[in-house]
């Protein structure tokens, strides 16, 4: 549903997305300023104006880049949970008809080893975890 974005170190991203999601409503409802947002139909263009992607869903994202200094993705995850858990019911409602997820830089083949408490808490919010393995240099723009 979402365009996979580059993660820095251990940063974790929380996303809510749905075909008719209005990011401003999420911001007002949660009282949290997002890191990034997109509205359906929003275009991503190169510097010379070539369209390289069109968002078909609205999405709202919050990540820990530059905020949490730990190298452990679970610490980043817990930081987001502390902000988001008080709004768990609103998050479930906002995510209806769409997707609620955490993107975690953790090898997918080791998903069972990830912090079980974080996984349980994410599930209680109606979110799933997308474990992102190492990325190829061309996926990072290099």
Strand order of the largest sheet: 2-5-1-6-7
Radius of gyration: 15 Å
Shape: globular
How many E strands?
Answer: 7
Distance between the termini: 24 Å
Structure description:
The chain has helices spanning 23-30, 73-84, 88-94, 116-124; strands spanning 13-18, 36-38, 43-45, 51-54, 58-63, 99-105, 128-132. Helix 4 (116-124) links the parallel strand 6 (99-105) and strand 7 (128-132). With 142 residues, it is an alpha+beta fold. The chain has one domain (13-133). The chain is built from 4 helices and 7 strands, in the order E-H-E-E-E-E-H-H-E-H-E. Helix content is 25%, strand content 24%.
What is the topology?
Blueprint: E1 13-18, H1 23-30, E2 36-38, E3 43-45, E4 51-54, E5 58-63, H2 73-84, H3 88-94, E6 99-105, H4 116-124, E7 128-132
Parallel strand pairs: 6-7
Antiparallel strand pairs: 1-5, 1-6, 2-5, 3-4
Name a few traits of the molecule.
globular; 142 residues; two-stranded antiparallel sheet
Describe, in short, the structure shown:
The protein has helices spanning 23-30, 73-84, 88-94, 116-124, and strands at residues 13-18, 36-38, 43-45, 51-54, 58-63, 99-105, 128-132. It is an alpha+beta fold. It is globular.
